[in-house]
Design a protein that fits this description.
Blueprint: H1 3-10, E1 24-31, E2 35-42, E3 63-67, E4 71-78, E5 82-89, E6 110-114, E7 118-124, E8 128-134, E9 155-159, E10 164-171, E11 175-182, E12 203-207, E13 211-218, E14 224-231, E15 252-256, E16 260-267, E17 271-278, E18 299-303
Antiparallel strand pairs: 1-2, 1-18, 3-4, 4-5, 6-7, 7-8, 9-10, 10-11, 12-13, 13-14, 15-16, 16-17
């Protein structure tokens, strides 16, 4: 969640959210017609801030995840060619300069928190299934041999109360709805048969207590989606829920506050900056007028 290759498929900053209070979220990087490193913080009340000048290499189709107890990491993506660089985010939402890449450079990758203060990047274009674990100190490990169907432009989120996570959906050359559960130790399980509409370029995030949500995406032929699929606290993906808000692809999502979440930005035939808040019960709200630079291929994570 590069652009030149994706068209064929699709037709230091200051803090704003966390820093000792309830967690906020951060949207970062993306594509506007060119690659950007723009940042938008989300407050603990779900308010998106105006643009903050980006730090680090401008890129898109990267991923982001929370790690440690209050930090986040952006990683991988495309600058026009695949990248493996990462950028750490402090508890106050300050984005650090580039960290030299580790592992296979790729775009269309997904990432999520898992375990206790750890994160995982996985899959991506190629198509790939390898993963890269992130320690509680933000160190990205070398490639772990992939498990499950090779694919890109998927999404991932944490679920449950013991640190599990889930990779789901994506593109293998055709759209997919398969999922792969990640254990609390970071081991990726083999494929689980897909539920709901197969699609790519969607987003996912945790919400509520131990639950997750996949939303939006693209099925091809100009068919942008706003449907969502809720994930139970044991990792069972539900059938489609009728979409709310602007149907779009290449958006991002993150948790914020306690049990709430937000989907934001993305594209159709043009870029968007609208957001959609998710309640603690998994209800997606109608569009909130966009703030900041409209763009797609960005990433988001909780921090603070």
């Amino acid at each position: 969640m590069a652009f030149s290759s994706f068209r064929s498929l699709m037709g230091a900053s200051s803090g704003g959210g966390g820093g000792g209070g309830d967690p906020g979220a951060i949207f970062g990087f993306g594509h506007t017609g060119s690659y950007v490193s723009t940042i938008n913080h989300v407050s603990a009340s779900g308010v998106v801030a105006t643009d903050t000048t980006g730090v680090g290499t401008s890129r898109a189709y990267l991923a982001a995840a929370a790690y440690s107890t209050s930090r986040a990491i952006f990683g991988y993506g495309s600058t026009g060619s695949a990248s493996s660089i990462s950028n750490l985010v402090s508890p106050s939402g300050v984005v650090a300069t580039d960290t030299t890449g580790v592992g296979t450079a790729r775009e269309g990758i997904a990432a999520t928190e898992y375990g206790t203060g750890r994160a995982i990047f996985g899959y991506g274009t190629g198509w790939a299934s390898m993963t890269n674990l992130v320690s509680p100190s933000g160190v990205v490990a070398t490639d772990t041999t992939g498990v499950g169907t090779l694919r890109g432009y998927l999404a991932a989120a944490r679920f449950g109360t013991i640190g599990k996570a889930l990779f789901g959906y994506g593109y293998t050359g055709s759209n997919s709805s398969i999922t792969n559960i990640v254990s609390a130790s970071g081991a990726v399980a083999s494929d689980t048969a897909g539920v709901g509409t197969a699609r790519r370029a969607l987003a996912a995030t945790e919400y509520g207590t131990g639950r997750a949500i996949f939303g939006y995406g693209y099925t091809g032929g100009g068919a942008y989606k706003s449907i969502t699929n809720l994930v139970s606290d044991v990792g069972v993906v539900a059938t489609d829920t009728t979409g709310v808000g602007t149907a779009r692809q290449n958006l991002a999502a993150a948790a914020y506050n306690t049990g709430k979440a937000i989907f934001g930005y993305g594209s159709t035939a043009s870029n968007h900056s609208v957001t959609n808040l998710v309640s603690v019960s998994g209800v997606v709200a109608t569009d909130t007028t966009g703030v900041g630079t409209a763009r797609n291929g960005l990433a988001a994570a909780k921090y603070g």
